[in-house]
Amino acid sequence: MIFLQTQAPSDWAMFFGHFHPVVVHLPIGMLVIALILEIISRKKGLENLQPAITPILFWGMISALISCLFGWLLSQSGEYNEDTLFWHQWMGIGVAMVSLAAWYMKKNWATDQTLKKAFMPSMYALAALLTGTGHLGGNMTHGEDYLYTYTPEPFRSIAGLPPRTTGKSATKKIDNINEALVYQDLVAPVMEQKCWSCHNANKIKGQLRMDKPELLAKGGEHGAIFKANDPTNSEMLKRVLLDPNDEHHMPPKGKVPMTEQEIALVHWWIQNGAKFDTKVAQNKQDDKIKPILAALAGGTLVGTVATGGGETISPIFNEKVSAASEKDIKKLSDLNVIVMPVSKDQNYLDVNFINARNLDDSKISLVSNLSEQIVWLKLGSTKVTDKSLSDISKLKNLTRLNLEHTVVSDAGIAQLKDMKFLEYLNLFDTKITDAGLKELAKLPAIKKIYCWQTKVTKQGVEALKKINPKIEIDTGWQDKMPTTDTTKTLVAKEIAK
Hints:
This protein has a 7-stranded mixed sheet, with helices on one face. The chain is globular. By secondary structure, the protein is mainly alpha-helical. It has helices at residues 11-17, 20-23, 25-40, 53-75, 82-108, 113-142, 146-149, 155-159, 182-194, 213-218, 235-240, 260-271, 290-298, 326-333, 389-392, 410-413, 434-439, 458-467, 487-496; strands spanning 338-341, 349-352, 374-378, 400-402, 424-426, 448-450, 472-474. The chain is built from 19 helices and 7 strands. The protein folds into 3 domains: 11-149; 177-308, no CATH class; 317-496, Leucine-rich repeat, LRR (right-handed beta-alpha superhelix).
């Protein structure tokens, strides 16, 4: 049974309700500490810990009551399964009531032996209630499988759980790709990994469920999320293509985003009518989807996080490299750099500095230690300069490089000329000019270049196209592209329109 609100809760209710996940950790911590102190203070020599238990129980009880209030406010959103919510709610109230009783017993047991005898059973009951309430809360927040999804080996084997996949792509090898069902075999696995945790029977964000075809087609509180044969105007795709820092981006910040290949699969499905019962062979296949389907058939699809452009599979992924040093990865992780594998069966890495925007030239040399393994490097909005590109040029297997919103210029770009596998380069809002663009013609594998809001001119693009007609250059302006350094003026005019 699903809990649905007939009337939208007030903004104030939701404001305070969203503090529940924060406040709820206070009673958990304090009440568990009270139990631990009670146990160890009964040992000889540790009796002096006893006076601290009563005030800890008091504040644990107060925070539990506040948590119950905020939890009730949050429940008004109507986004949770009624059955799970019911038990979570009443077990939470049970925690508050039992902690109140435990505090009263502890405070008065010196004059009442009955209270003293009942105290420890109440503390054990409190521990059981905390465990159950927390587990149900985890189910509602992260999905019913949240506990075992991240269970490591060897505990997975002991518990009889299937092996955990480590790749970022939600897709799997398809033995007979033409007979595969587009939705069930290609699209549904993507949504299961990237969408269902927030849109399922236990958690229904935005009144939207995506775990069943009929509910996916129905949509959420704002109506349908896709338009058959019209992916461009489908809300679902609009959300996944937003900037990751946008509050409306899906999946939300903190969760693993869809890869470019996964987005392409969803786009293709919608473009062909968003049907739930058609096979791959029954749908028109364009040049964009063919290499992805071929990769699925061969079990080699890699998971590129969506950053725009470049859907083909680089030949570098047919090669094998040794595993990266954990020590070298840790040096980057300590700087809040995201280091992720790009494929389950290979040692290639995706290195993303989105959480390390203060990175400058002094730290970039750390990537050189992973020169064989890094194939995707995202340095957008960092403080790197041309000096950093000397180290970047040592990444011999790099295929994708994001330098948007940095101060790199033609001098830095010239240092990339020997990178034989570099296919994709994002230079949006950099200082590159026609001279730097011409240098990129020396890259043997280059396929796509983004150079919005740069000093690149139409003549520069045409000159590069004459050298290499196969390069796709995205300027954002097409025939409106400036022929002189008037880019910023045109940007302002376009925005004003």
